[in-house]
């Protein structure tokens, strides 16, 4: 939940992951709360790594953004 202080849930939700595709979820129909619940049930739906540095967040391949 703390990461949501830095960014939108859609930025950290791995909607292109094999796990997401396997679940067959409709991302557009999901509320923020539903997305969080799905990430709790299936941690592979969280884009990694999550890096917070100097009040900025970098997710996945965006880690280069902090360099």
Give a description of the structure.
By secondary structure, the protein is of the alpha+beta class. The chain has a single domain (2-66), classed as 3-Layer(aba) Sandwich (Glutaredoxin). The chain has three helices and two strands. The chain has helices at 9-12, 18-23, 32-41, and strands spanning 50-53, 56-59. A two-stranded antiparallel sheet has the order 1-2. It is globular and about 35 Å long. The termini are far apart. 6% of the residues are buried. The model has no long low-confidence stretch (mean pLDDT 86).
The CATH class name reads Alpha Beta
Mean of all residue-level pLDDT scores: 86
What is the number of E strands? 2
The main sheet comes to: 2 strands, antiparallel
Distance between the termini: 25 Å
Q: What is the strand content?
A: 5-15%
Number of helices: 3
Radius of gyration: 12 Å
Percentage of residues in helical conformation = 25-40%
Structural class: alpha+beta
Instruction: Estimate nothing, just give the exact number of structural domains.
Output: 1
Order of helices and strands, N to C?
HHHEE
The CATH homology group name? Glutaredoxin
CATH topology: Glutaredoxin
CATH architecture: 3-Layer(aba) Sandwich
Instruction: Name the strands of the widest sheet in spatial order.
Output: 1-2
Mass-distribution shape: globular
Low-confidence stretches: none
